[in-house]
Automatic annotation (TrEMBL):
Residue ranges of the region described as Disordered: 1155-1236
Basic and acidic residues compositional bias, start-end: 1222-1236
Subcellular localization(s) per the UniProt record: Nucleus
SUPFAM superfamilies: ARM repeat
Any GO BP annotation: cell division
Name assigned to this protein: PDS5 cohesin associated factor A
Coiled-coil portions: none
Length: 1236
């Protein structure tokens, strides 16, 4: 930048004595030296020195020349600025400069010099401070009011001062800045919007955090000038809030932040603004109302705020937003109530009525937050919440949503713990909420399984006690790597049940280290988890353990808090022998009719049943606490009651707790045995089961006792009276499972001669032909109930033997497969109703799944039998699908079933009911999560890893889908689309994360399958082709959903030899089985033609219904005969069927989705076509046995009708070997029910 040459002044300049002429010819050092003398001269002058003022007037004018104002040397500029400031002081009130432009230049020049205040360590800082002090004291900037564009100077001044202030400035600097700015605001005609913005911008959170001193300066300035600046602030907010002129300021988008800050500084600043907020509260824009509510919640809820009392109209208007139509607004109001109750107890009365309404809000989140609001206030001080507010929480313990109920129960429990157990506020507070304990215990009477809070609490406690015991047992073993790894697993499992599992893991490791070093601590912990530990002993143990871990010099100890939490969870603080005795006495009162059950809102019968259920739960977790003659006497009374549930619960309590009855309570034993025998012979099925298990669990001479039950029951079996068969079959099944060696021979005879030949292979009664696929338990015929129990007996018998030496398991599996193939009608006499057939299909599928849980039987289940079992999840009956899926999930999540059964869930992609698909997906997520967690927690061998790693489900899924009975035309788009959906149903969950490059592992696995043959039919070219096509679809899905699948696989996947046969080394299958067009259709969908008449011929629909049109091909008109002839399956099973290919009728399902109110009818709204079963004859089995042909079956209307066979199929029936694993023909594909 070029600076002007010094112009010779028009009037000769007079300099102070000793100062030579100041020109541009001298050096900077000399210039500074001469200016310092000038500065000293002006500093010593005052306003009364008229002679000197006149003498040095020319010098004053000379110092304002461009040479000085634009000098490049900062020292020169600073000295000149100091001179000019003194000149304004000396010549006040009139400045020697008459030109407005010159005045503007001078003040902008002085303002720029004030930036030097920023560096307090600068050698020149004292001069900068002098400059500031002089300007503030004289109020020099007030001269600028006469200038038209004075606002530019003021804005620049304010910006400079706000930018330079920092924490190194002392109070004097801040005071002079304040004086300088406040004089401009208070003595001017008003504050422009631009100037106001320079002040307010420092209040915005982002700027506030950057420069706290600037915020404090702005805050102090606003407080000092409140009377003057309030009008300007009101005008700003009026334009933005009321008139909507957001363009008036760059701060318009921060109005609510500014209002909050201004209110905190001085509510007087917003005197005129508050009515504008009332206007905004009534805005039609929900988001705008939400923003205002959030702001006012902070203003009303602030600790020292008096806004509610000072502005009642605004407060009442704000309370009205509790009933706002916009859910987020109501939610914000409820959240505000918590702070308001804590900071302003006097407003509780106003809030109570509105919280009452919101406690019944239709939105779950709002009801939940009402509880949180009240509980948080109550935990701070119980006086903050009145009885009415606590009543709202009490009501919500009965809420329809579990999340709300849980929050209410947990909140009340926390209050009870704080004020009643820990006595933190005296007896008066404890008395106020003494009702909480009874309320929480009475919640046990709720029917919903979610409300079994006590049940879950004790289960968790029992599990944690078990883990701690196992940890202590490991400490008794020698130190080793394996021992350390086992300890780590226990510690991680313990940490998962504590709050903040991540921190808990570290604390538990530290606690374990302390345990290893302190034997006395281990002894105390062992005593604490001992079954005989009383509540009083537990209290002592906990006190001793915490005392050892307390460090006096450490005020907060999160490690100790976490250990305390663990001790609270494992200590028997609720239940010991005394507690059980007290509960039993209460139960006795209910039995005798002397209890106040009616006062508590329950009938005596309900009280007895619920009391027994409570004791039953405790019998699992605290068995030793029951061991007293008084307790057992009361339980014996319950056994004699007519209520079946009461007797069943009492037997189970005996089973769980009665291990010492035989040795220590002979009188109880002599009374109990006859009752157990009677229940095992003539009680309900559940009572019989518990009675047999009770005898086996608590008596030493159980062999004699079980024989006394077995022999009369086995002799009295009579298939002609099925009503009297169910209990005996249950008892015999459980006896054979518990004592297999003792009853091996008689059971085999019973199974062969009675169970199979007489019961399962005969239909004595004719079922109800109402066409329903499912009925209630009460409507099921006694004969079918007996058959279901007979199937369960077969399974229990085999599970007891746990070996297949007699080949009984093979025969049983063939029988169960035949049951599925025949759709539940094993005899083909068509006497059984459709609903009864559904029951038998479910029983057969569940039986195969149960046997698969035993390794010796899993090994002999053939792929065909596995496929039959899997297809039950696609049954035409909704309840069959639902119950089977639940059983499958429970067995898988407990790691009882082999991994291949997880593949069954892939078939759920075809389920037409959205809820069933969603449930199946949740089951998949849970199972995969459990397996991954188990792998992380345990060191596994390669063989074990293959059986658990979720990715290894893919081979089983591909094999299962390649044998899908609906997969008959592998090159048709619709069928390939179904396969793709099933594959993606599983792969989507597996591919959520690409852990350890699992996507590449999946790709490699599918590619490996493509290089094998189908072990089920290795020489069948079509079967292998279908397998390869499914592989190609799987590869297509994986490649389209993952960009990382083409990387190198971390490991070479292993394939199950039971399903895949390895090819020769020279074999290479690189054929693409999907055409380019097919790939495109699978990716984007099949193009849909739109003919002109399409809209004309479109079927009419009814709201709430979906219509699928059924089409029938010519092959539906005729049918060939297929007969299943079964003799005693445990010796041999012969199945005759067509051996040639049959086409599956191309039928589209007529599916009408209609919501029904009846619980029983809901699933019936989803009938589907059967799938997977071979065609069946319309004739009787007798006709088939004679080798004669039968008349073709006519395809009748109705749900679940049997499929007609292709007219071109071979009519001759061919006897097949008893091993169903040899069935390779497509005609033998199991056509099980599918709802699609």
């Amino acid at each position: 930048m070029e600076f002007p040459q010094q112009q010779k002044p028009a009037v000769e300049v007079v300099y102070p004595p000793g100062v030579k002429e100041i020109t541009d010819k001298i050096s900077n050092d000399e210039l500074v030296k001469r200016l310092k003398v000038v500065v000293k001269t002006y500093m010593d002058m005052d306003q009364d020195s008229e002679e000197e003022k006149q003498q040095y007037l020319s010098l004053a004018l000379h110092l304002a020349s461009e040479f000085f104002l634009r000098n490049p040397n900062k020292d020169v500029r600073l000295l000149v600025a100091c001179c000019l400031a003194d000149i304004f002081r000396i010549y006040a009130p009139e400045a020697p400069y008459t030109s407005h432009d010159k005045l503007k230049d001078i003040f902008l020049f002085i303002t720029r010099q004030l930036k030097g205040l920023e560096d307090t360590k600068s050698p020149q800082f004292n001069r900068y401070f002098y400059l500031l002090e002089n300007l503030a004291w004289v109020k020099s900037y007030n001269i600028c009011f006469e200038l038209e564009d004075c606002n530019e100077i003021f804005i620049q001044l304010f910006k400079t001062l706000f930018s330079v202030i920092n924490n190194s400035h002392n109070q004097k600097v801040q005071m002079h800045m304040m004086d300088l700015m406040s004089s401009i605001i208070m003595e001017g005609d008003g504050v422009t919007q631009e100037l106001l913005d320079t002040i307010l911008i420092n209040l915005i959170p982002a700027h506030k955090n950057l420069n706290k001193q600037a915020y404090d300066l702005a805050k102090t300035l606003l407080k000092r000038t409140v009377q003057t600046i309030e009008t300007c602030i009101a005008n700003f907010f009026n334009q933005v809030l009321v008139m909507g002129k957001s363009s008036v300021s760059d701060l318009s988008e921060h109005v609510f932040d500014l209002i909050q800050e201004l209110f905190a500084i001085d509510p007087m600043l917003l005197t005129s603004v508050m009515p504008q907020l009332e206007f905004k509260l009534k805005s039609n824009d929900g988001e705008e109302r939400l923003a205002v509510v959030r702001l006012l919640a902070k203003l009303f809820g602030a600790k020292d705020s008096e806004l509610a009392s000072q502005n009642r109209p605004l407060w009442q208007c704000f309370l009205g937003r509790f009933n706002d139509i916009h859910v987020p607004v109501r939610l914000e109001c409820v959240k505000f109530a918590s702070h308001c109750l804590m900071n302003h107890p006097d407003l509780a009365k106003d809030l109570t009525e509105y919280l009452k309404v919101r406690s019944h809000d239709p939105e779950e989140a709002i009801r939940h937050d009402v509880i949180v609001t009240i509980i948080n206030a109550g935990k701070k001080d119980l006086n903050l919440v009145n009885d009415q507010l606590l009543g709202f929480v009490r009501e919500r313990t009965l809420d329809k949503r579990w999340r709300v109920r849980k929050e209410a129960m947990m909140g009340l429990a926390q209050l009870y713990k704080k004020y009643c157990l820990h006595h933190e506020a005296g007896k008066e507070y404890a008395q106020k909420i003494s009702w909480i304990k009874d309320k929480l215990l009475h919640i046990y009477y709720q029917n919903s399984i979610d409300d079994k809070a006590l049940n879950e609490m004790w289960k968790c406690q029992n599990m944690l006690r078990g883990l701690v015991k196992e940890l202590l047992d490991l400490h008794k073993l020698p130190v080793s790597e394996a021992n350390n790894a086992a300890m780590l697993g226990k510690l991680m499992n313990i940490a998962k049940n504590l709050p903040d599992a991540g921190k808990a893991q570290d604390f538990m490791k530290k606690f374990n280290q302390v345990l290893g070093e302190d034997e006395k601590l281990r002894v105390q912990l062992e005593m604490l988890i001992s079954p005989t530990c009383s509540c009083k002993q537990a209290e002592i143990c906990v006190r001793e353990i915490t005392r050892k871990l307390t460090f006096p010099k450490q005020p907060t100890n999160p490690f100790l808090e976490m250990v305390k939490f663990l001790l609270e969870r494992i200590a028997p603080v609720h239940i010991d022998s005394e507690a059980i005795s007290a509960l039993v006495k209460l139960l006795n009162k209910s039995i005798e009719g002397t209890a106040d059950d009616d006062d508590e809102g329950v009938t005596p019968d309900t009280a007895i049943r619920s009391g027994l259920e409570l004791l039953k739960v405790l019998s699992f977790t605290h068995p030793t606490a029951f061991h007293s003659s008084e307790t057992y006497e009361s339980l014996l009374q319950c056994l004699k009651m007519e209520d079946d549930k009461v007797a069943e619960a009492a037997i189970q309590i005996f089973r769980n707790t009665g291990q010492k009855i035989e040795t220590e309570l002979q009188q109880i034993k002599s009374t109990l045995i006859p009752v157990l025998h009677q229940k095992a012979k003539r009680g309900t099925p559940h009572q019989a089961k518990q009675a047999v298990h009770c005898i086996h669990a608590i008596f030493n001479n159980k062999e004699v006792q079980l024989a006394q039950i077995f022999e009369p029951l086995s002799r009295s079996l009579n298939a002609d009276v099925p009503e009297q068969l169910i209990t005996p079959l249950v008892s015999l099944g459980h006896i054979s499972m518990l004592a297999p060696d003792q009853f091996a021979s008689p059971m085999k005879s019973i199974v062969a001669n009675f169970i199979v030949k007489d019961l399962l292979m005969n239909d004595r009664s004719v079922g109800n032909k109402n066409g329903k696929l499912w009925t209630t338990d009460e409507e099921v015929s006694p004969e079918v109930l007996a058959k279901v129990q007979a199937i369960k007996l077969l399974v229990r018998w085999l599970l007891g033997m746990k070996n297949n030496q007699s080949k009984s398991a093979n025969s049983t599996l063939r029988l169960l497969s035949a049951m599925l193939v025949s759709e539940g009608d094993l005899t083909e006499q068509k006497k059984i109703s459709k609903s009864d057939m559904s029951r038998l299909r479910l029983a057969a599928g569940g039986a195969i799944m149960k046997l698969a849980q035993e390794p010796c039987y899993h090994d002999i289940i053939t792929p065909e039998q596995f496929q039959l079992c899997a297809l039950v999840i696609n049954d035409e009956c909704y309840q069959v699908r639902q119950i089977f899926a639940q059983k499958l999930h429970l067995a898988l999540v407990k790691l009882l079933l082999p991994l291949e059964y997880l593949a069954v869930f892939a078939l759920c992609a075809k389920d037409p009911v959205k809820e069933r698909r969603a449930h199946a997906r949740q089951c998949l997520l849970k199972n995969i999560s459990v397996r991954r967690e188990y792998i992380k927690q345990n060191q596994l061998s390669q063989e074990k890893l293959i059986s658990l790693l979720p990715e290894y489900v893919v081979p089983f899924m591909i094999h299962l889908l390649s044998h899908d009975p609906d997969f008959t035309k592998p090159h048709e788009y619709e069928q390939l689309k179904d396969i793709k959906e099933c594959l993606w149903f599983m792969l989507e969950v597996l591919m959520t994360k690409n852990e350890n490059n699992s996507h590449a592992f999946l790709r490699k696995m599918v590619e490996n399958i493509k290089q094998t043959k189908d072990a089920q039919s290795p020489e069948d070219a079509k079967a292998n082709e279908k397998l390869y096509i499914v592989c190609d679809v799987a590869l297509f899905v994986i490649a389209n959903k993952s960009t990382a699948c083409h990387l190198d696989s971390p490991n070479d996947p292993l394939l199950p030899s039971k399903f895949f046969v390895t090819q020769d080394k020279d074999f290479k299958n690189d054929k693409e089985y999907l055409s380019a067009d097919m790939r495109q259709m699978l990716l984007t969908g099949k193009p849909k033609p739109a003919p002109v008449l399409a809209a004309v011929n479109k079927p009419l629909t009814v709201p709430g219904r979906r219509i699928y049109v059924k089409t029938t091909t010519a092959s539906d008109t005729t049918s060939n005969t297929s007969t299943i002839n079964i003799t005693s399956p445990l010796s041999s099973t012969t199945i005759n069927k067509n051996s040639h290919k049959r086409s599956i009728r191309q039928t589209k399902l007529i599916f009408i989705f209609q919501e029904e109110t009846s619980q029983n009818k809901t699933p019936e709204a989803c009938p589907v076509k059967r799938r997977g079963r071979p065609p069946k004859s319309a004739s009787t089995p007798g006709a088939a046995e004679k080798g004669g042909t039968t008349a073709p079956a006519v395809g009748g209307a109705g749900r679940g009708r049997k499929r007609a066979a292709d007219a071109n199929s071979n009519t001759a029936a061919e006897s097949v070997n008893s091993k169903m694993s040899k069935q390779n023909d497509e005609g033998t594909l199991r056509q099980i029910d599918l709802q699609r």
